[in-house]
Design brief:
Blueprint lengths: L1 H9 L4 H15 L5 H13 L4 H43 L4 H33 L1 H16 L5 H13 L5 H5 L1
C-alpha cells in the first residue's frame, strides 16, 4: 500500500515520471518482480489505453495480492493523488503569476528528465546484455526511426515484436542437424 501511495504522491508530472518510481518500488525495494518482468509489464502497459501509472499500479498490485491487491494499489495510488491535485492546483492557480512559483514549476522538468534518462540507460544496458550489443543497438535505432521519423505508434511496434518472438523460427544450428 505504501509503495503505491509513494508513487502516487511523488510521481509529479504524470505517468512518465511515475514509471521510474514504480521500478524503484517494485523491482529494487520490494523485489516483487525482476527488471525483465518490469520491462515486459511496462511494454504491455504502453500498448493499452489509459494512464500508464494506473495500469502499472493495478497490475503490480494484482500480481502481489490478487484482486484485493489490485484494488488496494489503485485506491492508494489514485485517491490521495486526486485529492491533493485538486487542493494544490487551486493554490497554484491563485499564485501562478508569482515568479518563484513559475520557476518551481519549471524546475520539475529536469528532475523528471533525469529519472527517465536513468531508467532508459538501465533498459539500454539490459538490452545489450540480453540481446548482444550489436543487435540491441540496431533494434533501438530502427525502433527510434520508426517512432520518430515514420510516426509508427509504439504500441504497434511492441505488438509486432511480441508476435515476432512467438513465431516458430528454426535456429541455424537446429536446421543443420
Amino acid at each position: 500500500m505504501f509503495a503505491f501511495f509513494r508513487v502516487g504522491m511523488l510521481g509529479f508530472g504524470g505517468g512518465p515520471s511515475a514509471i521510474p518510481l514504480f521500478q524503484q518500488e517494485a523491482v529494487k525495494k520490494y523485489k516483487w518482480m525482476t527488471e525483465e518482468e518490469f520491462a515486459d509489464t511496462l511494454a504491455l502497459a504502453n500498448t493499452m489505453p489509459g494512464p500508464i501509472a494506473t495500469k502499472m499500479a493495478g497490475y503490480i498490485g494484482y500480481r502481489v495480492g490478487g484482486i484485493m491487491g489490485c484494488l488496494n494499489a489503485l485506491i492508494s495510488s489514485v485517491v490521495p493523488t486526486a485529492l491533493l491535485m485538486i487542493f494544490l492546483l487551486q493554490i497554484l492557480q491563485a499564485y501562478k503569476d508569482i515568479p518563484w512559483v513559475q520557476h518551481m514549476s519549471a524546475s520539475v522538468v529536469p528532475v523528471v528528465a533525469v529519472m527517465l534518462a536513468t531508467m532508459t540507460w538501465e533498459f539500454f544496458k539490459k538490452s545489450g546484455d540480453t540481446l548482444g550489443w550489436k543487435k540491441a543497438i540496431y533494434l533501438i535505432l530502427a525502433l527510434y526511426l520508426l517512432t520518430e521519423w515514420v510516426n509508427v505508434h509504439p504500441g504497434i511496434l511492441i505488438f509486432v515484436l511480441i508476435v515476432f518472438v512467438f513465431l516458430p523460427f528454426k535456429k541455424k544450428k537446429e536446421a543443420k542437424q
